[in-house]
Amino acid sequence: MRSFRTTTSVLHHKLPYFPYFNNNTISGGSYPPCFVATISTQKEAAAMATHQSSQNTPQPVQVAKRLEKFKTTIFTQMSMLAVKHGAINLGQGFPNFDGPEFVKEAAIQAIKDGKNQYARGYGVPDLNSAVAERFKNDTGLVVDPEKEVTVTSGCTEAIAATILGLINPEDEVILFAPFYDSYEATLSMAGAKIKCITLRPPDFSIPIDELKSAITKNTRAILMNTPHNPTGKMFTRDELNLIASLCIENDVLVFSDEVYDKLAFEMDHISIASLPGMYERTVTLNSLGKTFSLTGWKIGWAISPPHLTWGVRQAHSYLTFATSTPMQHAAAVALKTSDAYYEELKRDYLAKKKILEEGLKAVGFTVYPSSGTYFIIVDHTPFGLEDDISFCEYLIKEVGVVAIPTSVFYLNKEDGKNLVRFTFCKDEGTLRSAVERMKEKLSRK
Fold first, then answer.
1. Could you tell me the pTM of the whole model?
2. Of the candidates 299, 280, 301, 281, which has an alpha carbon nearest to the alpha carbon of residue 289?
3. DSSP letter at 261?
4. What is the radius of gyration, based on Cα positions, of the chain?
5. 20 to 30 A from 312, CA-CA: which of 90, 263, 356, 440?
6. Which residue intervals define the domain Aminotransferase class I/classII large in the entry (predicted)?
């Protein structure tokens, strides 16, 4: 994180110095130009001296209390280390290959067609309709694209708009740990009270009794993610039915992050909104990036009944107002593609998954099953490092491969200290190279 001192020093270096002239001195014209220039130069010199002095006095980092516990994201830290040490990055979840040509061409055409000004705040009509149609195909639910679909700047903003628009300070929200790191940070911004239910290996199933006891009269929502990042777990129909019954019984909302819905390998993905009695209390969150390998476009959406959509849109209006116009038009083209695209996507990722999964087992990791997403969780303890942070640093510096330590995805860091996450959203050559490096340089201790 850049300190306040650094930020101000950059501004001072880049902005010209404009001395303040009042009517009693310079602007009255009573001094010759050379004298005016001398005064200006002296003022500049004095200002620069003051600035240089302030540079030598470190200033405390300034951040609101609700965010002071959060550091630079682990993804940024590991990616920087990867560059520094020339490591193969199997940490951060973005593909090292590009999205489909027909979608990129649609974006180019939208730009050429002049679709470059602010979009309608909650989405261009064509994309709202495409999202609603895809949701109908996937779940059987018919939603109003004008009243129940809100387009956002990626799913991360959809999550933020949902939390900030529907959660009040002191509301209790239940998370399943490990969790995507933005959940905790955004809930902290909203002033929510977080309760965590820990999912444990090998199958990361829901501890039913813990979930039941966690729900109180103050519970406002359950925030869940299926298929689940970072574990690759998919919530079963029985688990979803349990969550649904508890939410209906206790009048609790569900915020369901489903960005990996098209990367479901061993069972069909089920949207909890499709279960009886659940649509009216669910916000379904999704995006384009994971499915179409276009993570930099940041096109996401939230689907919810009108009484919940109001809160989501109120927050969205003051977070980003509107999302990239040409990319929205291209996203609409993407979502209208045939099911053949999704079938090919799944085949491609299954092949990549096999390379990494078999490779990690051959290296000596304890590898846990991944039913969805493009992540695999492993136990690193056979290699004798103290914890996940130490292991990942060793892996980068000595082996040349990046993984993500999972303790950052838990409120209780001890719960994740034995686990690290690898991603297989890379081309097959990259995956094989990473496996070979680990086979060559990583030894059990």
1. 0.87
2. 299
3. T
4. 26
5. 263
6. 88-437
Of 81, 84, 96, 97, the closest CA to residue 402 belongs to 81
Alpha carbon distance 234, 371 (integer Å): 6
- By residue count, the chain amounts to 445
In order of 256, 265, 299, 320, the CA distances from 134 in angstroms are 16, 19, 15, 24
Q: Which amino acid is at 162?
A: T
Q: How far apart are CA 182 and CA 31, in angstroms?
A: 59
Task: Judge whether 151 and 300 are in contact, CB under 8 Å.
Answer: yes
Which structure tokens are listed for 93? 């979840």
Q: List, as one string, the DSSP characters of 195-227.
A: EEEE--TTT----HHHHHHH--TTEEEEEEESS
Q: Are strands 375-379 and 401-402 parallel, antiparallel or unpaired?
A: unpaired
- In 3-state terms the chain splits into helix, strand, coil percentages (rounded to 5) of 50, 15, 40
Distance of CA 402 to the CA centre of its chain: 18
Task: Determine the straight-line distance between the first and last CA of the chain, rounded to whole angstroms.
Answer: 36
Q: Give tens-digit pLDDT for 269-322.
A: 999 999 999 999 999 999 999 999 999 999 999 999 999 999 999 999 999 999
Going edge to edge, which strands form the sheet with 172-177? 149-152, 300-303, 282-287, 253-257, 219-225, 172-177, 193-198
